[in-house]
Design goal:
250 residues; two-stranded antiparallel ribbon
Length: 250
């Protein structure tokens, strides 16, 4: 899976670089986009992302389950190239959140041990939660190299982007809902919830490779976290990845 994700990002980058050498031809002559002022064009100055999250490098005990998901939003500044106005560089700031769900596994962020415990709760004698998730929220600074087939109105043409995003952890917590005994009987009622906040096991800084391809205001996005999710020697090597939908505009 890691090789596939990196390969997709590489192929997208090759597609962008090849497209840059082509110009738009209209009725037998080349249109010179350099005659247009693109400094105030609308080109993905706001991006909203939602989709599927998972982890690479997990075992049966640490593997997420269900529809783990992310929700991100970014405000971007887009700077078109003077030499080729199909291309631009964008950078910005925003928030990235991830909700990783587990079934029959308990992640103890509040543990005082040296490594983060992932505890299987399939044993009938262990109390556990019916629903359990690990949430992280990062302040993020994305940077993208962009290509638009229609540089004057990118929201009406095909677009491609590859880049990186740099994040700093704001908060991390686990949330369990409806504590039950080993026989599935509710201990405190179905509305009972418990949150544990702690971030000492999780890397506060992260770097992820990103790619997008789409048409108009909609695009498919993918990301792969290059840095380890957990701090060194606190658990397995985990590299989060995501695939989702980006809605962009302005």
């Amino acid at each position: 899976m890691k090789t596939i994700l990196l390969g997709c990002i590489f192929l997208l980058g090759v597609t962008v670089s090849e497209a840059q050498v082509k110009d738009t031809t209209v009725k037998g002559y080349k249109k010179s986009w350099t005659k247009f002022d693109l400094s105030n064009r609308a080109n993905d100055h706001f991006m909203l992302q939602y989709g599927f999250d998972s982890w690479l490098g997990t075992s049966d005990t640490t593997a997420p389950s269900g529809f783990s998901r992310h929700f991100n939003f970014y405000f971007m500044i887009d700077k078109p190239s003077k030499n080729n106005q199909h291309t631009s560089v964008a950078y910005g700031l925003g928030l990235g959140s991830s909700n990783i769900f587990f079934t029959n596994n308990f992640v103890n962020l509040a543990s005082q041990t040296g490594t983060l415990p992932f505890t299987s709760v399939t044993n009938a004698s262990i109390n556990h939660f019916k629903k359990f998730k690990l949430t992280t929220i990062f302040l993020e600074a994305p940077v993208e190299a962009r290509y638009a087939t229609n540089p004057t109105t990118p929201d009406k043409g095909y677009k491609f982007a590859v880049g990186l995003k740099f994040g700093y952890l704001i908060t991390a917590y686990t949330k369990g809902k409806d504590a039950v005994d080993g026989n599935g009987n509710s201990l405190y009622g179905p509305t009972y919830k418990r949150k544990d906040y702690d971030s000492r096991f999780i890397n506060h800084a992260r770097v992820a490779a990103t790619a997008r391809v789409g048409l108009g205001n909609f695009s498919l996005d993918a990301s792969y976290q290059i840095t380890n999710f957990l701090k060194a020697n606190t658990g397995p090597t985990i590299n989060p990845f995501s695939i989702g939908l980006t809605i962009s505009g302005l």
